[in-house]
Amino acid sequence: MTREETIYLMMNKANDIYKNGWTWDSEMDIWRICSDWNSEHDEDEEIFMCEHENEETGLVDGFYIEDDSWVFEDR
């Protein structure tokens, strides 16, 4: 699988979560895919993923994949 295909898979899973409701397992699946990819590739091929923190509460309420973000109100 190419980097672009992996990102596409991660984003599709993120959209499914957004559409069908957040669960710990569904989000961890995306983190696992990213981690697996990054551990097997050079730094210049890594996929960027990080948590999104709510500015008002300071709580993590979503995540970023590359330049896109998913924020969940019910998390």
Mind explaining what this structure looks like?
With 75 residues, this protein is α+β, with helices and mostly antiparallel strands. It has one domain. It has 2 helices and 3 strands; from the N terminus they run ααβββ. A hairpin with a 2-residue loop joins β2 and β3 (68-71). It is globular, with a radius of gyration of 13 Å. The N and C termini lie far apart (31 Å). 8% of the residues are buried.
Task: For the structure shown, list the relevant keywords.
75 residues; alpha+beta; 3-stranded antiparallel beta sheet; 3 strands; 20% strand; globular
Question: In order across it, which strands form the biggest sheet?
Answer: 1-2-3
Number of helices: 2
What value does the Rg take, in angstroms?
13 Å
- What percent of the residues sit in helical stretches (DSSP H or I)? 40-55%
Strand segment tally? 3
Report the average pLDDT across residues.
Answer: 95
Number of domains: 1
Strand content: 15-25%
**Mass-distribution shape:** globular
Distance from first to last alpha carbon: 31 Å
Largest sheet descriptor: 3 strands, antiparallel
Question: What structural category arises from helix and sheet content?
Answer: alpha+beta
Uncertain regions spanning at least 5 consecutive residues: none
Element-level helix/strand string: HHEEE
Question: What's the short version?
Answer:
The chain is α+β, with helices and mostly antiparallel strands.
Layout of secondary structure:
Blueprint: H1 3-20, H2 24-39, E1 49-53, E2 60-65, E3 68-71
Antiparallel strand pairs: 1-2, 2-3
